[in-house]
Amino acid sequence: MRARLTHLDEALAEVERIPGPSGELALDAVATLASVYGEALARVAGYAAGAPDVTAALTADELVGHLLVLHDVHPEPVDRRVARAIERLRPAVRDRGGEIELVGIERGVAEISLTLGGCGSAAGEVLAAVREAVLAVAPELSDVRRQAAVAGDAHQAAFVPLDAVLTSPLTPPLARSARP
């Protein structure tokens, strides 16, 4: 399904580059079709609202859930969708010796608590994956930010100056500073 969605995005980008009335007509047809499908999807979501199992199945389906979000008719509030995305990511974060939690959502920004074992070099990669997953289920958000580390957090790597590693604690300070 991802391959088809990628192909669709590429095809729409090509249509947007068509100059003149033909391009405008093609874009209008696509927009009208999307509007009709969005209305139909809203009706399906409305009918399913009385059947919690059906609603759960619709929202759990990756493609249907994506379309519900795209057409702004997803029955779940944004915080629940984001919490579900975080829950799906948790096993992978734990495999890296870390933990992830949703702190909250305020002014269109999801704030997460993310700790990782070992060095902090993987944090950027993990945060990028978290951001991508969260914004996929909640495109109405503008960003996903990592909560600032709390002093004394056991998962934060301590900074140890290189001189402290390369010299003996018995080496006089002047001798250390004179090293090349």
General description of the model:
The chain has 180 residues and is mostly helical. The protein folds into two domains: 2-70, no CATH class; 78-146, 2-Layer Sandwich (GMP Synthetase, Chain A, domain 3). 58% of the residues lie in helices and 11% in strands. It has helices at residues 2-16, 20-48, 52-60, 62-70, 78-95, 123-137, 162-166, 173-177; strands at 99-106, 109-115, 143-146. A three-stranded mixed beta sheet has the order 1-2-3, covered by helices on one side. A hairpin with a 2-residue loop joins strand 1 (99-106) and strand 2.
Count of distinct structural domains: 2
Q: Average the pLDDT over all residues and give the rounded result.
A: 81
Following the backbone from N to C, one meets helices and strands in this order, namely HHHHHEEHEHH
CA radius of gyration = 24 Å
What is the strand content? 5-15%
Distance between the termini: 58 Å
Low-confidence stretches: 152-180
**Residues in helix, %:** 55-70%
Q: Largest sheet at a glance?
A: 3 strands, mixed
User: What's the total helix number?
Assistant: 8
Number of strands: 3
